Amino acid sequence: MSNGNPPTPQEMAELFNAMKEELQQLKKERAERNKREEGKPHKEAEDDDDDVVTSCVLKTRRSKALSKEIMDYEMPLNFTLPTTLKPYKGVGDPIIHVTKFESMMILNGAFDIIICRSFPTFLDGSAFLWFSSLPEGSIK
């Protein structure tokens, strides 16, 4: 990824597995928090959950995984995104999704910087949240 190319299928699989592990850890932490709050009034527990969700949303909005060079690139006016590929939601084989995405983008005349810039638009749900949480400038 650091050489300006989009992630390889192997790298995507590794990143996906890391995302699954992080999700398991978050589920474990939530279960522990819920267990600690069993004796508290229900309203208080709901408010705490809202704070966690708000914090997560605000954190992901500030994340900018794509480098400044990629984000500053002016997209060609005549470039169109593939319309037949559905966004990846974190379910199924990420290697298949990345391979299809890359093939369709190349068929549409895209090159590396356009492929990188367009990739997040083909993610949804937990896959998009994972991508949004990557360190700032980590995709170059």
Automatic annotation (TrEMBL):
Residues 1-51 are annotated as: Disordered. It comes from Stylosanthes scabra. Residues 19-45 have a biased composition (Basic and acidic residues). This is Uncharacterized protein.
